[in-house]
Structure formats: structure tokens, C-alpha cells
Design a protein that fits this description.
Length: 372
């Protein structure tokens, strides 16, 4: 815990919501901010592009992508909106989401559908479930000749399930449907190879399991589709005369004046987290996942999904009731863990996270609090 600025008086079991940034990464951000403020013009207009290029190369190696196909964004919601609002849909088109989708992204889908007269189709994925095949069947059953795009989670936010995203992307592509993957939780939780995955669009947060500062995320777009994807803010890149970089990167990399230090710290976050276990990132992912499964066994007799569909998040249903008073009571006892209505009140879920600062005693404390 000394490695993290988290309040030592609180058992923090909600890394999944906003992450937590270790001291070495925050120190690197402070160093970069001091450098920025010492020479604002030189940093933003001269140094920044080279620094971003270096970080992009390291990120590309980590997520299995050509760095030229990556751009930085503040968060996965921004990337999802940029893609959806760049595409054009017509009345009668269908946009496919699932019942486990992240509310913010589902809202973005509904917004563009309402604007164009398209229809949102929701694939109802059961929970708990017994196999990944149930996810595939539920999604493919909703595909019709009018389906233009599927927006799918790699790791579902409310229910903490690792979807069989490779099979979903390939099966949808066989049916002529491209996929926008909301991988907000995936980087740092599960191994990634975006080139092999082949999704049209993939976005992931880096402030969650990679533990970069808040405001660090990426968008990956298949090379042939990049010309049609525009950022939410149209700025200088729209008419830049440069030809040494793609229009895709020129537009996304400058959307007005921002603090670029969150994504400039991604390299430091990757290096810092890699050193926490002797086996590097694979060992860290394995350690955190094993802890999450152990915590599940301690906390609930139910199995929300097969073990191979769980990463470092585990959610399960509680008895029906009001979520907020229980959350507040747990927090009053020194435990930060999300309790929320899902799919709608009075049904509710509780979701735990497992990160390197957690230990079994944290979940034992939660178990005792829940009994009380």
C-alpha cells in the first residue's frame, strides 16, 4: 500500500471504476508538467509530438497494434462517441448492443440512432451464465440484414465478464457486420493483440488496470477505415498541409489546448506495473485474477460465469433491495465497493476488483461487513 496514494483507512475494492495511480507514475506526471510549464510553447509545439511518438510505440507493443493505427483520447467514452458520430446511418439501419453494455456508451448509440432514424437492438445476455457460447448465441441471434454496427464490451463494466470478443468479432464480420469494441477494462487485465483481433474499432482505458493518470486512453482504427473517423473536436489537423503523418493522427493529436501528460505517462505506467511481479505483466495479470477468483469463493457460493470468463472483476447478485444505503453502510465501515441497481431496481449487484495492493484480508473484511 505504501506504493499507492490510497487512503490507508479505507479498504479499496473498486479499482475498476477509475483505477488508482502509483506514486512513481504521479511523480513522472509532475516532472512532465513542470517541464511543460517551464516552456509551454516549446513543449506543446516541438517536444510533445516526439514524446507521444515514443509512448505510442511502447503502447503499440503492449496491445499488439501498429503505432500508426493508434491515437490518444481522454477516455473510452470519448473514443466511442468519436467513432459513432463519424459514421453515417440511415432510417431502418440497426445498431446492435447488449444488455451488459456500459450505460454511457449505450447512450451514445441511442443518440446517433435517434438522430438518423436507425434502430437500437439489444441482445439480452443472461446473468449469471454457464458458458461463453451463450453470449455468442445471444448476439448473433439479433443480427439481421439491416445490422450496420455492433458495439460490444470486451470486459463488461457492470457484470465483470470477459466476453469471447475474438469469436464475436470474426462471426459478425462473416455476416458483414463491423464491431466497435469497448475495451475500457481490458488493457492490463487481459492480454491484447489488436492486430489479430481485427475489430474495425477498439478503444481501451489506460487509467484503469494499466494505472496511468486519469485522462489516458486510446482508440485503434483499422487502417482502411481511418479516413472516415474524425475526432469530436475539429481543429488544426483538418487542413494541415503535412503529409508525413496520417490525417487520422493529425486530427486526433491536436484538439485544442489540453494537458497531454496523462498519456505521456503511459510508458512509465507500463514499466512501473511490469516490475511489481518477477514475471512482469503476464504474472501480474495472473496474480490479480487468482486473487479475484479467491475472493469470489470467499464471498459468494454463486458462480456468475465460468472461471475463463472472469478477469480481475467479479460481480454477483444480492437480494433485491436499495443499493445506495448498502453502499453507504459499507463505506461507513471503511470499505469502498460498488453496489448498484442492475439491470434495474430493485435488483442489485455488488462488484469487487483485485489489484496488486489488495490482499485476501480485504475481502474477509467485506465478507464480515456483509454478514453484519
Amino acid at each position: 500500500m505504501a506504493f499507492w496514494p490510497l487512503d490507508p483507512k479505507v479498504v479499496f475494492l473498486n479499482h475498476g471504476s477509475f483505477g488508482a495511480c502509483p506514486f512513481p507514475v504521479l511523480e513522472e506526471q509532475n516532472r512532465l508538467r513542470a517541464r511543460l510549464e517551464a516552456q509551454p510553447i516549446h513543449f506543446q509545439l516541438v517536444e510533445r509530438e516526439a514524446l507521444e511518438r515514443d509512448v505510442r510505440a511502447k503502447l503499440g507493443a503492449f496491445v499488439g497494434a501498429d503505432p500508426d493505427d493508434l491515437v490518444f483520447v481522454p477516455n473510452a467514452s470519448t473514443a466511442t462517441n468519436a467513432v459513432l458520430r463519424s459514421l453515417r446511418f440511415s432510417a431502418g439501419d440497426e445498431l446492435l448492443i447488449t444488455s451488459h453494455g456500459y450505460n454511457a456508451c449505450n447512450n451514445a448509440v441511442r443518440f446517433v440512432a435517434e438522430r438518423s432514424g436507425a434502430r437500437v437492438v439489444v441482445a439480452d445476455v443472461p446473468f449469471p451464465l454457464q458458458s461463453a457460447e451463450q453470449v455468442v448465441r445471444a448476439v448473433l441471434a439479433c443480427v439481421t440484414p439491416r445490422t450496420k454496427l455492433a458495439v460490444l464490451d470486451h470486459v463488461t463494466s457492470p457484470t465483470g465478464l470477459v466476453f469471447p470478443i475474438g469469436e464475436l468479432v470474426s462471426s459478425l464480420k462473416e455476416r458483414g457486420v463491423e464491431t466497435l469494441v469497448d475495451g475500457a477494462h481490458a488493457p492490463g487485465m487481459v492480454p491484447l493483440d489488436l492486430a489479430a483481433l481485427g475489430a474495425a474499432y477498439y478503444t481501451g482505458n489506460l487509467h484503469k488496470w494499466v494505472c496511468a493518470p486519469k485522462g489516458a486512453a486510446f482508440l485503434h482504427v483499422r487502417r482502411a477505415l481511418q479516413p472516415q473517423i474524425r475526432p469530436l473536436v475539429i481543429s488544426h489537423g483538418a487542413n494541415s498541409p503535412r503529409t508525413d503523418r496520417s490525417r487520422f493522427q493529425l486530427e486526433f493529436d491536436w484538439q485544442g489546448t489540453v494537458d497531454p501528460t496523462p498519456w505521456l505517462c503511459v510508458s512509465k505506467a507500463l514499466e512501473t506495473m511490469e516490475k511489481l511481479e518477477p514475471g512482469g505483466w503476464p504474472a501480474l495479470m495472473k496474480r490479480n485474477r487468482a486473487l479475484a477468483l479467491r475472493a469470489r469463493d470467499l464471498l459468494t457460493p454463486t458462480r456468475p460465469a465460468p472461471d475463463d470468463m472472469l478477469g480481475t472483476l467479479v460481480a454477483w447478485q444480492l437480494d433485491d433491495g436499495d443499493a445506495l444505503p448498502l453502499h453507504d453502510a459499507l463505506f461507513a465501515s471503511g470499505i469502498e465497493v460498488p453496489v448498484f441497481p442492475w439491470p434495474a431496481p430493485p435488483r442489485r449487484l455488488i462488484r469487487i476488483s483485485a489489484q496488486h495492493y489488495n490482499e485476501v484480508a480485504d475481502y474477509e473484511r467485506l465478507a464480515e461487513a456483509l454478514r453484519r
